[in-house]
Each structure stands twice: as C-alpha cells, then as structure tokens.
Inverse folding.
C-alpha cells in the first residue's frame, strides 16, 4: 500500500539551529500538508501546499517556518531558528485530489519526525 | 475557524461497546473523519462521513448529523488493542485540510 515517508524519524538539535524535515508524499497525490503535535496535545495544522504554492497556513506557521517542493517527489519543512517550544512530532500528510472527486479520499499521514530542541 | 469538542477519556471493558461523541462548529464543511492514534504513532484513518447517517465498517461505525454539528464513533466488541486515542476531524476549505479535536483516550480493560 502506498505510504508517506518521512525522515529523520528523530532529530535532536540545539536552540537557534536550523532544521529541515523531509517528506516523500504518495506519488500521485496533489495536496500536501504539515501538522505538528506537541506531546500530550492535539494534532495542529501548520500549512497546506498545492500547485507548487502555499494554499493556507496557520498562525503557528510564522516567518521562521518555510516549505518547499524542490523536485517532483520531496516536500520539506524548514525551521530557520529553532526554539524550545518547537519540540514536537511533525507529521507530513498528502491527499489525492479535491473538487467533486474529493469524496472519500483520505488524508494519509507519514510516521512523523520527532524534533527535540535543547 | 473550527471548534471541535470530544470527551477527554473513556474506559470500557473488553467485548463491550463504546460511543465517542464529537460536536463541531465550522464553515465550509466538507466531511467528518475519525482517526485512531496509538501513542507515539501517526493517526490512521478509521471512518468518514459527508452525508447524514450511519456508516458501518466492521466493528467501527460512524454517524453524522450536519444540522446538529454532531458525530459519533461506535466501537463494538472492544479488544485490548483498541486502547488508543480517537481523533475527530473536520475537513473544510478549498485546500481540504483537516482540523482535529483534542482526541478521546479510550482504555479497554479486561
């Protein structure tokens, strides 16, 4: 079964350092997302990406965050200068299509990248 | 924005039935989803409703009333492996993003 792949599974970094989290969405999917989940809290939307541009971002997704789809397969989340409160599990997700075909299409999540900021 | 409410915790006995309620307020509603999440793992899809009524999928069923902004997930014949967090999520907007509730932790006891 097709899956969303994320690397690294766990990254430990020092406060102030830059971090890049990588994702390979399901190959024929068109919509891409980043979510985060702080330990013990709910899954929070960060950003959605469609047609090579950001379609929506949350208040959490401030100037220190950026996303890129540098080639036909990878989708990255960069945190420019990490803070202690960025420690969380970051989930990448992808979705096949929207409009009339959105129907029962399911948002599929990767296994997540756990970021620990010291 | 979205406002999604579900109970924090529920406990049930192996073999029993548990119903997890979810209420929501949203604009541009485009479907209600239930996901299961085990600790430290990603959410995995369980069930989906876009029209009013009951959707049955094996031991899991989900119900939706759009006029009431209400859904429930019914878990039947509970097994120990069903101990997990159950996330209610609403899909909305032109980007089809999901907004999640805080999750209901279900503990199944022998």
């Amino acid at each position: 079964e097709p899956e969303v792949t994320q690397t690294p599974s766990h990254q430990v970094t020092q406060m102030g350092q830059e971090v890049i989290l990588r994702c390979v969405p399901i190959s024929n999917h068109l919509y891409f997302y980043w979510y985060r989940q702080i330990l013990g809290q709910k899954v929070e939307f960060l950003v959605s990406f469609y047609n090579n541009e950001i379609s929506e971002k949350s208040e959490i997704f401030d100037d220190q965050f950026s996303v890129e789809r540098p080639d036909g397969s990878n989708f990255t989340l960069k945190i420019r200068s990490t803070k202690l409160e960025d420690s969380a599990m970051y989930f990448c997700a992808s979705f096949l299509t929207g409009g009339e075909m959105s129907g029962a299409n399911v948002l599929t999540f990767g296994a997540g990248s756990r970021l620990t900021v010291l | 924005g979205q406002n999604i409410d579900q109970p924090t915790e529920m406990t049930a006995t192996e073999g029993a039935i548990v119903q997890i309620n979810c209420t929501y307020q949203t604009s541009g509603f485009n479907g209600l989803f239930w996901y299961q999440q085990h600790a430290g793992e990603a959410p995995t899809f369980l069930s989906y409703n876009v029209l009013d009524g009951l959707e049955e999928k094996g031991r899991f069923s989900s119900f939706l009333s759009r006029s009431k902004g209400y859904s429930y997930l019914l878990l039947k014949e509970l097994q120990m492996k069903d101990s997990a967090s159950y996330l209610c999520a609403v899909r909305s907007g032109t980007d089809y993003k999901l907004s999640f509730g805080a999750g209901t932790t279900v503990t199944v006891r022998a």
Observations:
- Chain A has no helices and eleven strands.
- Chain A has a mean pLDDT of 92.
